[in-house]
Protein backbone atom coordinates (compact mmCIF):
# COMPACT_ATOMS: atom_id res chain seq x y z
CA UNK A 1 0.00 0.00 0.00
CA UNK A 2 1.28 3.34 -0.94
CA UNK A 3 1.91 6.04 1.58
CA UNK A 4 -0.82 8.23 0.07
CA UNK A 5 -3.37 5.44 0.53
CA UNK A 6 -2.39 4.93 4.17
CA UNK A 7 -2.74 8.63 4.79
CA UNK A 8 -6.26 8.61 3.29
CA UNK A 9 -7.32 5.69 5.53
CA UNK A 10 -6.09 7.47 8.64
CA UNK A 11 -8.25 10.49 7.70
CA UNK A 12 -11.31 8.30 7.30
CA UNK A 13 -10.97 6.66 10.76
CA UNK A 14 -13.41 8.03 13.46
CA UNK A 15 -11.84 10.33 15.87
CA UNK A 16 -11.37 8.96 19.37
CA UNK A 17 -13.06 11.03 21.98
CA UNK A 18 -11.02 11.44 25.09
CA UNK A 19 -12.90 12.24 28.26
CA UNK A 20 -11.32 14.27 30.95
CA UNK A 21 -10.70 12.40 34.12
CA UNK A 22 -10.54 15.49 36.23
CA UNK A 23 -13.75 17.15 35.37
CA UNK A 24 -17.12 15.57 35.68
CA UNK A 25 -19.26 14.96 32.67
CA UNK A 26 -20.45 18.07 30.97
CA UNK A 27 -24.07 18.78 31.76
CA UNK A 28 -26.32 21.10 29.95
CA UNK A 29 -28.24 23.45 32.25
CA UNK A 30 -31.75 22.36 32.87
CA UNK A 31 -34.19 24.80 31.36
CA UNK A 32 -37.29 25.21 33.47
CA UNK A 33 -40.14 26.36 31.34
CA UNK A 34 -41.89 29.44 32.65
CA UNK A 35 -45.30 28.52 33.92
CA UNK A 36 -48.01 31.08 33.25
CA UNK A 37 -51.21 30.99 35.18
CA UNK A 38 -54.30 31.63 33.15
CA UNK A 39 -57.67 32.59 34.62
CA UNK A 40 -60.37 30.73 32.84
CA UNK A 41 -63.42 32.80 32.20
CA UNK A 42 -66.40 32.10 30.12
CA UNK A 43 -67.52 34.44 27.43
CA UNK A 44 -70.45 35.44 29.57
CA UNK A 45 -70.14 37.05 32.99
CA UNK A 46 -71.18 34.96 35.98
CA UNK A 47 -72.27 37.87 38.14
CA UNK A 48 -75.15 36.89 40.43
CA UNK A 49 -78.51 37.34 38.78
CA UNK A 50 -80.56 39.96 40.51
CA UNK A 51 -84.24 39.17 40.91
CA UNK A 52 -86.63 41.41 39.07
CA UNK A 53 -88.35 43.50 41.66
CA UNK A 54 -91.61 45.33 41.33
CA UNK A 55 -91.12 49.11 41.15
CA UNK A 56 -91.28 50.87 44.47
CA UNK A 57 -94.43 52.72 45.27
CA UNK A 58 -94.28 56.22 43.90
CA UNK A 59 -94.38 59.22 46.11
CA UNK A 60 -97.74 60.99 46.43
CA UNK A 61 -98.33 63.25 43.51
CA UNK A 62 -96.19 61.31 41.11
CA UNK A 63 -98.69 58.66 40.08
CA UNK A 64 -99.88 58.60 36.47
CA UNK A 65 -103.63 58.60 35.83
CA UNK A 66 -105.41 55.27 36.02
CA UNK A 67 -106.15 53.53 32.69
CA UNK A 68 -109.84 54.12 33.44
CA UNK A 69 -109.33 57.87 33.44
CA UNK A 70 -111.68 59.59 31.05
CA UNK A 71 -110.02 61.39 28.16
CA UNK A 72 -111.62 64.81 27.84
CA UNK A 73 -111.45 67.44 25.17
CA UNK A 74 -110.05 70.81 26.23
CA UNK A 75 -113.52 72.32 26.49
CA UNK A 76 -114.85 69.36 28.48
CA UNK A 77 -111.97 69.56 30.92
CA UNK A 78 -112.56 73.30 31.40
CA UNK A 79 -116.26 72.73 32.02
CA UNK A 80 -115.83 69.94 34.58
CA UNK A 81 -112.85 71.50 36.39
CA UNK A 82 -114.48 74.95 36.57
CA UNK A 83 -117.66 73.52 38.06
CA UNK A 84 -115.62 71.66 40.69
CA UNK A 85 -113.37 74.58 41.57
CA UNK A 86 -116.28 77.02 41.91
CA UNK A 87 -118.22 74.60 44.09
CA UNK A 88 -115.18 74.09 46.31
CA UNK A 89 -114.66 77.82 46.59
CA UNK A 90 -118.27 78.43 47.64
CA UNK A 91 -118.27 75.66 50.24
CA UNK A 92 -114.85 76.42 51.71
CA UNK A 93 -115.58 80.13 51.86
CA UNK A 94 -118.73 79.31 53.83
CA UNK A 95 -116.62 77.07 56.08
CA UNK A 96 -114.30 79.97 56.88
CA UNK A 97 -117.17 82.37 57.58
CA UNK A 98 -118.86 79.95 59.97
CA UNK A 99 -115.99 78.25 61.78
CA UNK A 100 -112.91 80.47 61.55
CA UNK A 101 -111.37 81.34 64.94
CA UNK A 102 -110.90 84.98 65.82
CA UNK A 103 -107.55 86.73 65.81
CA UNK A 104 -104.23 85.76 64.27
CA UNK A 105 -105.27 82.11 63.86
CA UNK A 106 -108.18 83.03 61.63
CA UNK A 107 -108.84 81.09 58.44
CA UNK A 108 -108.87 82.43 54.89
CA UNK A 109 -110.11 81.21 51.51
CA UNK A 110 -109.07 82.72 48.17
CA UNK A 111 -109.65 81.73 44.56
CA UNK A 112 -107.85 83.33 41.62
CA UNK A 113 -106.67 82.20 38.16
CA UNK A 114 -107.58 78.59 38.75
CA UNK A 115 -105.81 78.37 42.13
CA UNK A 116 -107.80 77.90 45.34
CA UNK A 117 -106.04 78.50 48.67
CA UNK A 118 -107.53 77.55 52.03
CA UNK A 119 -105.52 78.62 55.05
CA UNK A 120 -106.49 76.98 58.33
CA UNK A 121 -104.12 78.87 60.62
CA UNK A 122 -101.83 76.57 62.62
CA UNK A 123 -103.37 73.52 60.93
CA UNK A 124 -101.75 74.41 57.61
CA UNK A 125 -102.77 75.48 54.13
CA UNK A 126 -104.48 73.68 51.26
CA UNK A 127 -103.69 74.62 47.67
CA UNK A 128 -105.98 73.27 44.96
CA UNK A 129 -105.31 74.14 41.32
CA UNK A 130 -106.24 73.15 37.78
CA UNK A 131 -103.69 71.45 35.52
CA UNK A 132 -105.03 71.64 31.93
CA UNK A 133 -101.98 69.95 30.27
CA UNK A 134 -102.59 66.84 32.42
CA UNK A 135 -106.37 67.22 32.57
CA UNK A 136 -106.13 66.99 36.35
CA UNK A 137 -106.80 68.89 39.53
CA UNK A 138 -103.81 68.99 41.86
CA UNK A 139 -104.05 69.20 45.62
CA UNK A 140 -101.42 70.09 48.19
CA UNK A 141 -102.65 69.05 51.63
CA UNK A 142 -100.99 69.86 54.98
CA UNK A 143 -101.95 66.35 56.10
CA UNK A 144 -101.59 64.02 53.10
CA UNK A 145 -99.17 65.97 50.90
CA UNK A 146 -99.38 66.45 47.12
CA UNK A 147 -101.96 64.47 45.16
CA UNK A 148 -103.23 64.47 41.57
CA UNK A 149 -106.88 63.84 40.75
CA UNK A 150 -108.10 62.70 37.35
CA UNK A 151 -111.65 62.90 36.05
CA UNK A 152 -113.25 59.44 35.94
CA UNK A 153 -116.74 58.71 34.68
CA UNK A 154 -118.79 55.54 35.20
CA UNK A 155 -117.71 52.76 32.84
CA UNK A 156 -121.10 52.89 31.12
CA UNK A 157 -120.66 56.57 30.23
CA UNK A 158 -118.47 58.35 27.73
CA UNK A 159 -116.94 61.80 27.80
CA UNK A 160 -119.57 62.93 25.27
CA UNK A 161 -122.51 62.02 27.51
CA UNK A 162 -123.73 65.43 28.60
CA UNK A 163 -125.60 63.99 31.59
CA UNK A 164 -122.83 61.72 32.81
CA UNK A 165 -121.32 62.61 36.18
CA UNK A 166 -117.62 62.11 36.73
CA UNK A 167 -115.57 62.11 39.91
CA UNK A 168 -112.09 63.56 40.47
CA UNK A 169 -110.20 60.51 41.73
CA UNK A 170 -106.66 59.85 42.97
CA UNK A 171 -105.30 56.88 41.01
CA UNK A 172 -103.19 55.37 43.82
CA UNK A 173 -105.96 54.50 46.27
CA UNK A 174 -109.06 55.70 44.36
CA UNK A 175 -110.00 58.26 47.01
CA UNK A 176 -112.01 61.13 45.59
CA UNK A 177 -111.16 64.80 45.98
CA UNK A 178 -114.36 65.57 47.89
CA UNK A 179 -114.04 62.58 50.23
CA UNK A 180 -110.46 63.47 51.13
CA UNK A 181 -111.28 67.11 51.88
CA UNK A 182 -114.35 66.16 53.90
CA UNK A 183 -112.35 63.75 56.06
CA UNK A 184 -109.36 66.00 56.72
CA UNK A 185 -111.22 69.28 57.25
CA UNK A 186 -113.76 67.59 59.50
CA UNK A 187 -110.91 66.36 61.72
CA UNK A 188 -109.74 69.97 62.01
CA UNK A 189 -113.25 71.05 63.00
CA UNK A 190 -113.38 68.37 65.69
CA UNK A 191 -110.28 69.87 67.33
CA UNK A 192 -111.66 73.40 67.01
CA UNK A 193 -115.39 73.19 67.75
CA UNK A 194 -116.07 69.60 68.83
CA UNK A 195 -117.53 66.50 67.25
CA UNK A 196 -121.15 67.64 67.17
CA UNK A 197 -120.54 70.83 65.22
CA UNK A 198 -118.01 69.11 62.99
CA UNK A 199 -120.64 66.55 62.03
CA UNK A 200 -123.02 69.38 61.16
CA UNK A 201 -120.67 70.75 58.51
CA UNK A 202 -122.08 70.21 55.03
CA UNK A 203 -118.75 69.20 53.53
CA UNK A 204 -116.69 70.37 50.58
CA UNK A 205 -119.64 70.11 48.20
CA UNK A 206 -118.07 67.71 45.68
CA UNK A 207 -117.78 63.93 45.53
TrEMBL record:
Superkingdom of the organism of origin: Eukaryota
Catalyzed reactions per annotation: 4 Fe(2+) + O2 + 4 H(+) = 4 Fe(3+) + 2 H2O
GO molecular function (one): ferroxidase activity
The keyword Transit peptide appears for this protein: yes
One Gene Ontology CC term in the entry: mitochondrion
Coiled-coil positions: none
Keyword Coiled coil among UniProt keywords: no
Subcellular location as annotated: Mitochondrion
SMART domains: Frataxin_Cyay
GO biological process: intracellular iron ion homeostasis; iron ion transport; iron-sulfur cluster assembly
The entry's keywords: Ion transport, Iron, Iron storage, Iron transport, Mitochondrion, Oxidoreductase, Transit peptide, Transport
Record family assignment: Belongs to the frataxin family.
Protein name according to UniProt: ferroxidase
Provenance organism: Filobasidium floriforme
Amino acid sequence: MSSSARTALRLLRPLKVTRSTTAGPSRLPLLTPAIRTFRTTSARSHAPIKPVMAPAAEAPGSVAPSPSTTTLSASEYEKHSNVTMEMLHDQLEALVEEYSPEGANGWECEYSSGVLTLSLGPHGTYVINKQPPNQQIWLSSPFSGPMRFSFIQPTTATSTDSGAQGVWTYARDEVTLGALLDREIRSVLVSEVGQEEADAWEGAGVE
